[in-house]
Amino acid sequence: MSIILAGAGPGDPELLTIAAMKALENAELVVSDRLVHADILAFAKCEVKIALKTTGRSDPAQDELSEWCLEGLGAGKRVVRLKIGDPFVFGRGGEEVLWYRERGFECQIIPGICSALAGPLEVGIPVTHRGASEQVLICTGRGRNGTYPNIPEYDPARTIVILMGVGRLGELSAMLIKDKQFPSSTPVNVVQSATTPEMKQCMGTLQDIEDKAKQAEVKAPAVITIGGVVDVLRPVDTVRD
Ligand SMILES: C[S@@+](CC[C@H](N)C(=O)[O-])C[C@H]1O[C@@H](n2cnc3c(N)ncnc32)[C@H](O)[C@@H]1O
């Protein structure tokens, strides 16, 4: 008996993999959280359980989700645990693999398109671009116990992509300028709900992005992209029909 741990992609159902779609169609129990769009969950033809994963409630919600899956596995069901984006990028997917293994169940893992790459792409930002960036650093804006990411000193050839950081955009920008020698003019994009109908974005620099995000009311879930790549293709229209 095994459980499928599947990535749901960044939001648009068209960006679900065929493997994930088949797993949903064949499942007897799907367990997910509110970050996954209803149109994706609609592929499931079985019971779907959703835990309310909100800031400050992620640990109890995680326990609830895991217990639901365990119950389903105990009842001999084909269980799919669906997670936003890719299950192994800031998705606690690895922790879940270990948790189920301790209880005698192996996970089959289906990758998903990660918001850290799809978010910038959706607003026309290539995270690498010859002559502009040859490295991408993906980090969380909020580490365990609320810590700040340990971003290396400024390198113009490195793109920084931050997940879960929009609520502390001001502090993160100030830290990069003050402690990491980033020029205050470094371009920044913030995109919320990329690939979904609720998508919105704002552009600015490390100096003014906090104000711009407030004006544009850009909130979580959002991807922050920092570096010269933000500007290399502007203007570009990548919106799919
Ligand atoms: C717990 S992390 C999960 C990341 C996920 N595993 C992935 O690969 O995209 C949740 C964060 O992902 C980012 N995120 C996920 N989907 C997004 C989307 N459609 N648009 C913007 N940010 C998104 C946000 O930073 C959000 O706070």
From TrEMBL:
Pfam families: TP_methylase (PF00590). Transmembrane segments: none annotated. Gene3D superfamilies: Cobalt-precorrin-4 Transmethylase, Domain 1 (3.40.1010.10), Methyltransferase, Cobalt-precorrin-4 Transmethylase, Domain 2 (3.30.950.10). InterPro entries: 4pyrrol_Mease, 4pyrrol_Methylase_sf, 4pyrrole_Mease_sub1, 4pyrrole_Mease_sub2, CobA/CysG_C, Siro_Cobalamin_biosynth. Keywords: Methyltransferase, S-adenosyl-L-methionine, Transferase. It comes from the Eukaryota. The keyword Transferase applies. One of its GO terms (molecular function) is uroporphyrin-III C-methyltransferase activity. One of its GO terms (biological process) is siroheme biosynthetic process. Residues 3-209 form the Tetrapyrrole methylase domain. This is Uroporphyrin-III C-methyltransferase, variant. The lineage of its organism: Eukaryota, Ichthyosporea, Ichthyophonida, Sphaeroforma.
